[in-house]
Amino acid sequence: MNRPVLPHPDPDRLAGLDPQALLAALHARIEESWRLCREVHPSLPRPGVWCDLRGRSAGQAHFGREGLRFNPVLYDENRETFLVEVVPHEMAHWLVHHLEDCHRARPHGREWQVVMRRLFGLVPRAAHRFDTRRASPAPYRYRCGCREHGFTARRHGLALKGRGYRCRHCAQTLVYLGRDFHEMRM
To answer: Is the confidence at residue 184, as pLDDT, over 70?
Structure first.
């Protein structure tokens, strides 16, 4: 069984952090992860860090911006798991991208999985299990033959202008049902 290599953060301490201290904890974890990666790839550049990611994604290795992006809402709501899993997940992408001959590696392919298991001691998971309702409110409800879909205001606006959407599973055209007022937040 894998054991995380990086020290586990104290959940009680994390729970009491104000936004600025929480950001400092994120940067410290990124620094720890980066130093660990440099043990196997000494010339690995330090990534820039931004907390400007929105929607359902917790993190993103953004090679065009030469750094890592994180979702501040999901981080605030899932502090411990975010530091334990999301930061190493994105740093593994950063490392694999900078390895020789790995520019064409699949995002969650063999190389990334090896880094997650052997370097970070974590189970390689391609997706998080966070509740994304607050980070990605989608109050506009649509239906197909197999399920209900939530649309953001932007996507709903595109549908109103005539853009058609189909379900990826059943391929039926999505039909607008109305707005879900339970997810609306002021």
So the answer is: no
